[in-house]
Q: What sequence folds into this?
């Protein structure tokens, strides 16, 4: 019974122990985890444009120069348009358009420019497909491999022919996003540490700025007191016939600095009054 009585008397004192330092509520910092964007999305791959929407009345790639279709019936002609055929035909048209932007000659399909055009068209068609069917894991893997392959080609061009690299980015509407030099996981602890350092730097800057303004406001009075003190010291030393430690040049320099600062403050005050009067 005595032991229970002792415990009852100790419990209120234990409950009164409260942590009053380094509370999270004291830090006015809020960290929100950034949204995870898959690597096959255009925001990560660097594609500034998506797959274009065709009207559907365009002929397929293999029947564009057909003379028979020029004089054929409208219903027969519609059978060879994009809207009445597979999606692959539309992608083939888009591939040819992308290659025509960067090819070296009409039969060029093997240069690095043509390969980049073909890969870009294929990537954008797969991205459009993934938006409709996001659970297609096989297509997702193919898309990731294509994006990495195109990034390797662009890295090669950037290293050995920078002018052509810039030309390809402009023609294909791409943004090159290199691999990070140092990979690190995004954690709450590291992010809060960075935000805390930024917050402390801002506090430091604001306080230093306030202290600088306070010193500037006291500068004119300080120079006036300094000038009077130097003149008094020189006068007393000459009257007492002791070695003079304050030269006249020093007094002139302080007086000049005082007059310049006084004129500057007067000019600033006048410039502030003009907008008020107007």
A:
């Amino acid at each position: 019974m005595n032991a229970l009585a002792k415990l009852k008397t100790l419990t209120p004192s234990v409950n009164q122990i409260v942590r009053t330092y380094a509370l999270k509520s004291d830090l006015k910092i809020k960290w929100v985890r950034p949204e995870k964007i898959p690597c096959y999305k255009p925001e990560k791959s660097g594609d500034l444009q998506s797959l274009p929407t065709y009207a559907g009345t365009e002929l397929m790639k293999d029947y564009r120069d057909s003379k028979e279709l020029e004089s054929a019936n409208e219903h027969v002609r519609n059978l060879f348009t994009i809207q009445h055929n597979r999606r692959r035909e539309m992608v083939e048209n888009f591939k040819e358009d992308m290659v025509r932007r960067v090819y070296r000659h009409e039969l060029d399909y093997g240069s690095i420019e043509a390969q980049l055009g073909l890969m870009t068209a294929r990537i954008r068609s797969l991205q459009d497909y993934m938006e409709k069917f996001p659970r297609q894991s096989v297509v997702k893997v193919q898309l990731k491999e294509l994006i990495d392959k195109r990034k390797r080609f662009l890295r090669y061009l950037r290293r050995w022919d920078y002018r052509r690299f810039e030309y390809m980015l402009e023609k294909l509407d791409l943004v090159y996003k290199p691999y990070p030099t140092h990979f690190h996981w995004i954690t709450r602890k590291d992010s809060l540490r960075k935000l805390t350092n930024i917050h402390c730097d801002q506090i430091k800057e604001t306080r230093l700025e306030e202290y600088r303004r306070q010193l500037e406001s006291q500068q004119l009075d300080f120079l006036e007191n300094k000038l009077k003190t130097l003149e008094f010291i020189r006068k007393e030393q000459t009257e007492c016939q002791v070695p003079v430690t304050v030269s006249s040049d020093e007094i002139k320099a302080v007086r000049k600095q005082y007059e310049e600062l006084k004129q500057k403050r007067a000019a600033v005050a006048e410039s502030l009054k003009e907008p008020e009067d107007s």
